[in-house]
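In the previous chapter we treated chains in isolation. Here, by contrast, the input contains two separate entities that must be folded as one system, with a combined length of 709 residues.
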Amino acid sequence: MDEIFGIPAPLLFGQLLLGLINGAFYALLSLGLAVIFGMLNVINFTHGAQFMMGAFVAWMLLHYLGIGYWWALLLAPLIVGFTGVVIEKTMISRLYKLDHLYGLLLTFGVGLIIEGLFRNQYGSSGMPYRIPPELQGAWDLGFMFMPVYRGWVVIVAIVACLATWLVIEKTKLGSYLRAATENPALVQAFGINVPRMMTLTYGAGVALAAFAGVLAAPIYSVNPQMGANLIIIVFAVVVIGGMGSILGSVVTGFALGVIEGFTRVFYPEASATVIFVVMAIVLLLRPAGLFGRA
Amino acid sequence: MSQFHRRALLGGAAATAAFGALPAHVARAQAANTVRIGILNDQSGLYRDVNGPGSVACVRQAIQDSGVAARGVNVEVVVGDHQNRPDVGSTITRQWIDRDNVDVILDVPTSSVALAVNTIVRERNKIFLNSSAATSDLTGAQCSPNTIHWTYDTYMLAKSTGGAMVRAGGDTWFFITADYAFGHALERDTAGFVRAAGGRVLGQVRTPFPGTTDFSSFLVQAQSSRAKVIGLANAGGDTINSIKQAAEFGVTRRGTKLAALLMFISDVHSLGLETAQGLVCTESFYWDLNDRTRAFTQRVLPSMPGGLRPGMGQAGCYSAIMHYLKTVAEMGVPAARASGVETVNRMKAQPTNDDAMGEGTIRPDGRRIQPVYLFEVKTPAESRGAWDYYKLLQTTPAAEAFRPVGEGNCALVRS
């Protein structure tokens, strides 16, 4: 058997693939964060809770109403996105004139409240959510057994990332958004309702988190901690990529997934910390992040 | 952080209002007849369903069932969340003992926290009744005259589940181990049985704890080792995610067997029978085991959070407090509070007997022993109703289920 650095090559290829799959989640989650920070200048610490809510809403739709995965993929982001709109309208919009730190603290608190409510109601072990029948099974790639569902997650994540990038960079709506970030008063003077645009942007970012949550539901147990476990890593991804950079969050999301995957082969004990080591190094060399504007 | 339980607080407030007019010496007499129990466990993390508020419900049930109130013993309960961190657990324990006059620390899942609590309780000559931490070191190298290890331990889990897997032909193993005291102890004890039976350990990975949600990389490594058995030396949410993702990656369809070395009934509930069917696990309590366990479950069920059935860690809390309160009632509160070691010695001197855990005895090294049950998870077709999850494969008698008293290297036994 061929070996690379003393590790069987098939195992390394397997880890590369798994790293890309995990990276897809990081990319999708950090994308929502980057959109919200880029457009609203809010560091949305509720993002992990909103990811968890997406998974829970999918479970609730199935458990209480018998609505399956495919509709959940559409409905859960809409429902959770709407709660995001309410949070923005009632709380976050009042803090735009203040320092970033206030938004961070508020969203952190709101996230803790949401997680606490779900934990009290549903416990910590989580709820079962099955892979839809159409996506069950696996491909035998020779070097590893690749679940069809994980392949689906990567494809959907890439499509979602591409679509978001296109909307922001190539459409008129995107140009309004970017302009409103630079100079809201001027954009408002052109007759565009900037506060509403901000609200909808936050709702869209939250919907992206919930969408990732629905995708994650069949892989992880649907439990109140699932967001808290991921959010710190995702923040590291956003910082490394450059706060607010769409391209940065996508590229770093995938790249860090792969780095983490390889660490799990060579030194598994460090796999939870390797991303923060990378973050420290990047911040030392490029304080604005890899794709950030200095 | 730590908090007085709501009911204790309300009860305290009501008592203050009702007895406010009583002479001071009556109040002093009542305080002198009060024992304080500190339930220290995970109230907010991945072991919440395994212990958490369920343990509190079981302890309250035990206080009620013991009938000590009628014998003049007043019991107060405080609850703390150690967040699975030894530093937090140590701080709460010190505060409880030094400031709040707590006499007994109870439950304490997460072996790293339990080992820290074990040391503090011994220094202060209080009592540690450990139900939910698994490391067998608590009755081995780190045994203490102030500690009783109640419900299960890594050696017993390894012998029962590990032994059954080896007998079924699983002679090569790969471990996925939670990287802290519990995981290391469970891996060590299971590997010992595998080697003793002529098997081989082909490798292991240590997964960061807490904070690992994706186990697929580790499962792929385990598979590529071509071991016949993948031993999961983890618990709670980690075990759930490992089993779920193993099913996703078709690990068992390719002939590899999964050994969930510590699995609780709430984990099976969370996984669903579709995913969990066929797994074997070891428990010292199952709600549907016999008439006594069913009666206990019926009593406590209305207080259990979220409709959960009690698991073995929670049932162990019930059993331990029943025995403790029985001893306190016999000794008298002032004598029982005066010395943790003396009270523990009295507890060791008599057999335990209650509805949840049946009959048992406590050895000089602090290990409580009882029969141990190996279960197989039913298929969805076999399950006849809610929480009907297990079928009994074998019962190991108390005398054979645990590490022989002389092999643990416990100083209490050697001297």
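Chain B touches chain A through 47 residues (CB under 8 Å). Confidence is low (pLDDT under 50) at residues 1-22 of chain B. Compare these points with the single-chain example from earlier in the chapter.
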